[in-house]
Structures are given as C-alpha cells and as structure tokens.
Amino acid sequence: MTQPTAVIFDVGNVLFNWNLRFLYERLIEDDRALDAFLRDVMTMQWHLQHDAGRPFAETSAELIAQHPEQAALIAALGPRFNETIRGEVPGMAALVAELHGADVPLFAITNFSGEFWRPFRAAHAAFFDRFRDVVVSGDEGLMKPDPAIYELALARFGLAAGEAFFVDDNIVNVEAAAAMGIAAHHFSNANLLREVLAAQGLLGDCEVSM
After folding, report:
1. What value does the CA radius of gyration of the chain take, rounded to a whole number of Å?
2. What are the residues whose beta carbons fall under 8 Å from the beta carbon of 204, sequence distance 6 or more?
C-alpha cells in the first residue's frame, strides 16, 4: 500500500472558522430576526451558488428582487465576506506550521467562491504561503463531493491517490475522497488529527516555523 506523502486540507471549519452568522450577528441585533434571516433569506442553499462559480452580483440581485426589504443586508455580504470568517480553528495554525517544517507538501481543495477567495487569501497570505496549491471550487465550476474536483486536484498537485491524505469536516466529502483511494480523515479537532497524521508517518520531530 502506498504511504501518503502530502496533506490536502479543506479550508472552512478545518483551517478557519466560517459561518454566515459571524457577519450577520453584527448587523441584526434581535436573535429571532437573525435566525429568520439566515433560515428564510440568506440560506446555505443560496450561498452554495457562489461556491459553484456564480458571481455575487447575479445572486444578490436575484435575492434582493425576492426580498427587497432586506436589500442592505444582502448586499453587505459582498464587501464584508471576510467577516464570516472568525480566526483559525484552534491548533490548526501550529499543525500546519509543523507539517510545513517537516517538508510535507501541503495543498487544499475548498468549496469557496473564487471572488471571495482572493481577498480572503490575501488577508491570510502568511498562512497560505505554506501551501503549494489550492483548488477553489468557484474558479473550477466543480464542487466537492464531485469526483471530478478530486481528479482535477490530484492531477494539478502531481499526486497519485495513494500519495494523498485528505482532511475535511464534511463526511460526504471524506467518503467521496476515500472512494477514489485517497486516505481521508473526518475532521473534528486538531489534537485528533495530529494523532492520525503521526500514525500515517506524516509527523515527526521537526522545528516549527511560525
């Protein structure tokens, strides 16, 4: 059996905490109104269009036409998307730095809007400069768990399936990767992931460069 030599991460809720609520709890004071807005207006189903590649200008115009009374709140997502991200998942910055220090090739596959990805990536350049490449669903028109995005990523990263170790918080994405012969881990926390990576031979004694 081929031993994994590289790690492929998901981004949202593996490397960085992400939730639309993080932005809108700043803009809607009443909890019931906030819950209703995220349930009935800015739903995850609507937001997933961006991860599939649709531009925010189109999706927001359509949503504002349906909910004109919420126009300002809907429009806020574009310029303030980075406020939907609230810091690194505990322990993950150190773990990424440790892997990088051990010369383990780091990559990512993320379901993320291409237009939102660029300012987010720029805001965290020091973190993502450790990654050799990132496949962004919105730029490719492909989303996890579609096998095609894994195939594209492996080809771009120059990896055989057995050489990759994939980490995602969505079990469906993990199962899709595993079905392709990729070693895959359903992420819950950094401590458990560290143990699994060590068992895979991907972590050893190394100097951590923060």
Report:
1. 18
2. 102, 198
Measured CA to CA in angstroms, residue 173 lies from 47, 84, 95, 109, 153 at distances of 18, 22, 21, 10, 14
The sheet carrying 164-168 orders its strands as 133-136, 106-110, 6-9, 164-168, 183-186
How many helices (H) and strands (E) would you count in the chain? 12, 7
- pLDDT tens digits for range 5-36: 999 999 999 999 999 999 999 999 999 999 99
Bridge-partner residues for 109, per DSSP? 135
In 3D space, the residue among 165, 199, 197, 200 whose CA is nearest the CA of residue 94 turns out to be 197
Q: What string of DSSP letters covers 49-103?
A: HHHTT--HHHHHHHHHHH-GGGHHHHHHTTTTGGGGEEEEPTTHHHHHHHHHHTT
Q: What is the pLDDT of residues 22-73, one digit of tens each?
A: 999 999 999 999 999 999 999 999 999 999 999 999 999 999 999 999 999 9
Q: Which residues contact 35 (CB under 8 A, 6 or more apart)?
A: none
For the chain, the residue count is 210
* The residue type at 149: I
**Distance from C-alpha of 33 to C-alpha of 25, rounded to nearest angstrom:** 10
Is the pLDDT at 208 greater than 80, yes or no?
Answer: no
Picking from 138, 132, 104, 180, the residue whose alpha carbon sits closest to that of residue 12 is 138
pLDDT value of position 1:
59
Give backbone dihedrals phi and psi of 146, rounded to 5 degrees, phi first: -55, 125
